[in-house]
Amino acid sequence: MKEVSIIEVEAKQQLMEKLDKNLLDHAAKLTEGNGPQIVDVYQLQGLAEVHCYLKTAHQFDPAEVDALLQFADPLEAARYCWEMNEHEYSFPICDLLRETRAREIFELAKPEPPAKLSVREQLRAAMKEARQHPAPEERAKGGEAR
Questions:
Q1: Which of 68, 101, 112, 122 is most buried, by CB atoms within 10 Å?
Q2: How many domains does the chain fold into?
Q3: How far apart are CA 41 and CA 81, in angstroms?
């Protein structure tokens, strides 16, 4: 059984939250202006179907999570892939993003500023860094000519 890292879990959680936000943002846009047109409602329905599939049925691999997180609106990119998918029994997100050249079509996510870490989190990060990069061996004392 494959072990899942904390980073992978956090990335997937971030994607799930972003998918929720994207769907709610699209729904909110329906109330702007003079109200929605029928086509707008159908587009929202398509987004909702893809959202439901991704949240409840799709077995994400880490590369798919990373690939979708590159987009400002990963739900819209996934919907486009869904429409272009010719695979009857699978939804290979990375392949479809590449084949459809989605990076050229959809806005990419802007890098998020680093989060302000609490003192405890800063200490944990420093300890983790120190464990990954052990200090060089100390020189033997005495006997060295200067």
A1: 68
A2: 1
A3: 20
Q: Indicate whether 118 belongs to any domain.
A: no
**Burial class of residue 92, CB neighbours in 10 A (0-12, 13-18, 19+):** middle
DSSP track, 76-118: HHHHHHHHH---SS---HHHHHHHHTHHHHSPBPPPPPPPPPP
Residue 72 lies in a domain: yes
**Mean pLDDT across the chain, nearest whole number?**
87
Farthest-apart Cα atoms in the chain, separation: 87
**Residue 62 falls within a domain, yes or no?**
yes
What pLDDT digit, counting tens, does each position of 13-62 carry? 999 999 999 999 999 998 888 888 899 999 999 999 999 999 999 999 99
Q: Is 43 helix (H, G, I), strand (E, B) or coil?
A: helix
Q: Which domain holds residue 65?
A: 6-105
